[in-house]
Amino acid sequence: MSREILALVEALASEKNVNEDVVFEALETALGIAAKKKADREQMDLEVRINRETGEYTTVRKWLIVEDLDYTYPELEKTIEQIQEEIPGIEINVGDYYEEDIPNEAFGRQAAQTAKQIILQKIRDAEREQILNNFLAVREDIVIGTVKRVERHGIIVEIAPKLDALIPREEMLPRENYRGGDKIRALFWKVEEFNGGRKQVMLSRSSPEFLRKLFEQEVPEIKDGLLEIREVARDAGQRAKIAVHTNDQRIDPQGTCIGVRGSRVNAVSNEIGGERIDVVLWSDDTAQFVINALSPAQVSRIVIDDETNSVDVIVAEDQLALAIGRGGQNVRLAAELTGLQLNIMTLQEAAERNAEEEAALRDLFMSQLNVDEETANALVAAEFTSIEEVAFVPVEDLLEIEILTPETAETLRITAREVILQTELEVAEKLNNIDEDLKSLDNVDEDMLRDLADANITNRDALAELSIDELIEITGVSKDEAERVILAARAHWFAEDNAE
Fold this sequence. Notes:
Blueprint: H1 2-16, H2 20-38, E1 45-50, E2 57-66, E3 77-79, H3 80-86, E4 97-102, H4 109-138, E5 142-151, E6 154-160, E7 163-168, E8 183-193, E9 199-204, H5 208-218, H6 220-223, E10 228-235, E11 239-245, H7 253-258, H8 263-271, E12 276-281, H9 286-293, E13 301-305, E14 310-315, H10 320-324, H11 329-338, E15 341-346, H12 347-369, H13 373-381, H14 387-392, H15 395-399, H16 406-432, H17 436-439, H18 446-454, H19 460-464, H20 468-475, H21 479-499
Parallel strand pairs: 2-3, 7-9, 11-12, 14-15
Antiparallel strand pairs: 1-2, 2-4, 5-6, 5-8, 6-7, 8-9, 10-11, 13-14
Helix pairs in contact: 1-2, 2-4, 5-8, 9-11, 12-13, 20-21
C-alpha cells in the first residue's frame, strides 16, 4: 500500500503539474474522511498522516483540552482532569490537543471512490490557485478578456486559459450589452475570497481608476512622467472630469490629453460607451481649481470658507444652468474633483444674501456696542465681521474709518472687550451647570459643550434624546461626528437593557 501511495502521488503531481505536497495533503484529507465513514466515526476528530518518504500512513484521533465549564462534546473534548486520570503525570494545557494512534482502516471500493473525488477536487483547486498566481504575477492594470456568458449578477470573462473573472453588475456601465465571444477591457479591481476558500478575480468598468488607466495607455506623456492626472471624478457611462497637471512648461496638459481633433480623448470615450470627458487644468490655487473644475460654465466670483471646507460660487443668471448641469451633474463632479462643497448661486442671490448678512452684522454692532446706525454701517463697510475683531484690532485700523475719532475708536474697543468678557462669564456659568457625565463623554469637546449649553442640553440623557439632525443644527458638526456622539450618549441605555 505504501508503494502504491507514493506512485499515485508522483503520477498525479506530474499529470496535473502541481506540487507533491498538494497531492499528499489532498490524499490525507480524503483518507481521513473515508476513515470516518468506514468506521462510523462521523463525530470523531480523525486525522490521517502520510510519511512523505515511505508512503506509510497512520490514523490519529484527537481531543481538544478544555476547561471543566466548557466541556460539552465528549467525542471531541477532554478536560485536564480526565487526561491526568487516564495518564498520570502527563503535562498538557487547555487549548492543546491530546492524540491517540488508532488502527488504520482497510478501505473498500466505496471509500476509495470517495477518496478519489476529494483528491481530484483538491487538485483542481490547487490548479486554479496556481493559474491565478501566475496571472497575478504578470497581470496589467487593464485586463483584456473574452466574454464567456452574461449572468444576472454580472459578466463572466475569460482573462487567461482556465481563468475566469467577474464584472459585477454594479461595476458595469449603464446600458452596455455584451454577448458571448465579445472582447472586453476592464480594470483589475481585486481578488475576492468566498466561503470555502474559493477565489474570484473581480474587474470593473465603472471605477474612476479605469478612466485614469485608459488615459495612461492612450497618452504616452503620462507613462513617461511628463504629465500627471491629479484627480478623477466620474458619473460612469455619462460624464467624467479629469484634472491634469505638468511641471514641464513646454507641454499643454489639456491639449496633450485631448489630442489632435480630440483623437485621444475620443478613443477613451469610445471605450466607455461614449462617456463625455472634460479635461481641466489642476491648480494648487483653490479658487482657480474650482473655476477650472466647473468648466464650461463661466464663474463671476468665488468666496472660500476654509473652516467648513466649502466654496460659494457666484455665476451670472445665464450661466446658472450650465454650472449646475443636468440633474446637478456638473457641480457634483466638480465638487468630487476638488474635494470641496460647492454652493452655486446667481449674482442676485449673492447680493441678497450679502444684504442679509450685512443687516445682521449691523444689528449686532448696534445692540452689542451701543452705536448708532451710521457707525454700525461704517464698521460693516470696513469689513468688520465680529465683536472680537473690533475688540482686538489695532486702534489704527479703526481710525481708518473716517467718522471715528480716537476717543470713539478706543471706546468701541473697550466696549467690545467688555461684551466678550460678559459672554465668557455667561458661558462659564452655563458650562458649570453641565453634568460631569456629559463633559466626560467621548467625542464631546469644549466647543460642542458650549453649543449644547446654549441649547440648554446639560446632561447625557438630554443629549441622547436628540436626533442626529438636531445635534447637527445645534453644533454644526458633520453627520459622521454627530452619529458617533449620539451613539456614545445612548450607550448606557443599551448597557442597562442588557443587564436586565
